[in-house]
Amino acid sequence: MNTVNKEYKEILGDFLPSLGKPDRKWITTIIVLLMIIGIGLLAFVYQVIEGQVVTGMRDHVVLAVYIVNFIFFIGLSYAGALIAGVFHLAGINWGRPLLRMLEIVTLTSLIVGPIFILVCIGRPERFLYMFLYARIQSPLIWDVIAIVSDLFFCIVYLNFTYIKDFAKLRDCSELKVSNWRKKLYTIFSWGYNNTKAQEKLLNQALNIMAAIIIPTSIIAYSLLAWLFGMNQRVGWHNSIFAPYFVLTAVYSGIAILILIMWYYRKYFKLEKYITKEHFNYLGFTLLILSLFYGYFSFSEYITSWYNSQKTESILLSKFWDFSEYGTMFIFSNVFAAIIPIIIIAFPKFRSINSITITSALILIALWFKRYLIVVPSLETPYIPIQDTRMEWVHYSATWVEWLVTLAGVAFFVLVFVIMSKLAPIIPVSEMEEKARGIRFF
Amino acid sequence: MPKDEKSKEFSRRKFLKSGLAVGAGTFIGGGLLSSCSKASNITEEKKTEMIKLLTTDGRIVEVEKTKTYPVTPSEPTVGDEARKGIPGRKFVMVIDLSRCANAGKCTSNCQSGHKLDPGQEYMSVHLMKDHKYNDPYWFPKNCYHCDNPSCVKVCPVGATFKRSDGCVLIDVDRCIGCKFCISACPYSARIFNWKERINELKAENAEDEDKKQFSPETSLPAQMGTVTKCDFCPDMSRQGKLPYCVTGCPMGAIYFGDENEDAISNGTETLRFKQTLKEKAGYRYLEELGTQPRVYYLPPVNKSFPYEVGLKDLTDEQKLKYKNILDKS
Lengths: 441, 329
Fold this sequence. Notes:
heterodimer; A: mainly alpha; 2 domains; 73% helix; B: alpha+beta; Alpha-Beta Plaits; five-stranded mixed β-sheet; two-stranded antiparallel sheet; 12 helices; 13 strands; 16% strand; disordered N terminus
């Protein structure tokens, strides 16, 4: 049996209360989240029974909020994997406390994202046909393959990163938890006893997985972009889409990381581990990404505007028109490309709270950006829509779609709440290595 | 064998008339013609009653009448059999834009034939105006049954497929309703069954429709949550009939036929397919997208009616539909 060293005990000690018996507040949170998920589930059942006529989608706008959510969550997931992989491989020491949050973001959103595809398809009971009758020529199947393999890699990677901490929790006599949890720790620490050989092996495995996960997530998100890029549709048929999507994914990933950091720092009293430096460093990353984002957006719009091809100019005119998408267009560009620069570049405005608020705005702006990619393009086909039914011409989401969306968000939060009960949200062993100055790379 | 133009024209008409009446079924393209060529060798000796037939490459052959037989209409195929296509066929459609006056009968006839709900249109009529000096014109649009179909490419499960006879059809028993084919189609030809069809439910009670197996050739019975579209009515072709839109059109603006036979018909008049396109400058909509549609248009020159005729019977609310064009002219 390994000897529990002092620093680790100190670090673990900080988390033991949060891992113990759930208090009333925790249970209430879980119940509220479950209720939101339940309501969303009911809305989905209603949609299945009545048909998708209960959504705002019609023959032109066939993909809407559900697909926007899908892109959004998958984006978060790939970003989490990408950033965690880079942090790990590059041995970025200050990033160590954030690794676990990133990995949980990855896994959770990788589960939530595909659920929205399931919700969006007209015959969810035939979902398995995607595997049974898969046609490799279809971009949707590329995506299925990418998501399934990414999910596999992420689960393996996540488990690897938990091994050391689970082993410690298994051996920790001070932690009073029920037997099934101890059993869980025992199973998923895979007999890890902190011997030299095991440690070396585990670190090698982690390095390999991190190296696999970085290209996987880039490929997977590019494939997601091509789901749109491969269509002959104005606003989608665009060669910039793959790098643009990868960039927005990383951008939204950093933004959600900051939000989660802020929450845990405040409510779990983790000021010792998550410092202002973290917010500053990630803020600077946001700054760089916002510049890139502005640059990419600009080059996307300028190329379609300059030559004013007929259907493209109709699409663009909807972005300038305030009765159409003007407000959303301004919002998504100002809050994702301009505001972050002002807030973060000037030390006067830069604080933990301001960076957090900026991140929240960026997340919303990026959600709207995806909406602007999906919906207006579908409303602008080559043959202009001629219809008297307003809902056929102009999409607006219905309560069913909002409830399902809300349930997705609630599920995301729920997994986070449960995961942080299961093991410390800060990877204790990583911190311990940091304290000992160990680098395995 | 008489070869002058007049009799050629006569024989073609005669053939097509009888051909359409008897049934443009499975064997005319392949089986029958091969038996025709065999038969024509014998006819020189025995002087039995002869009939003239037009081959797919435009030659006229004489066939002993007793050697020919009417093609019996075949049932619409189902399941995997429906993926094969009618042998020897290559369906095409030609729409003469100079004749369309937005009577809307193509749409309504198709709707009743396919038991569509009101608002669901396989064939829809748009009002178009290409630039400021040209007059608006009516533009009927169905599925173009492209030879390079964007929808078939993106389908994740192979529920939509291209057949040897040119039709792009959908197997709704396979369709998962992901709707990516709808977004991939540059012509907005595909529609989705957002709910159970009211009309079909009524019909079901009347004829016990629900016992029938789905046939991609008839697109019936429809299923909620799946994609549907114009199917080029191969079931009608099997019976030797023209599609619903063609028979519905009072102006005779829509021609349907077979590229192999080089003949198209609007029900009253039969034309040579390639010659018509050549002489009347036939074109395909959005040719530059490379989808290679099987539906051709004849340009709206020397129109039979001014476009306003098509607006006459419309209510003010219906006119709103064409606001984007009417505002400009």
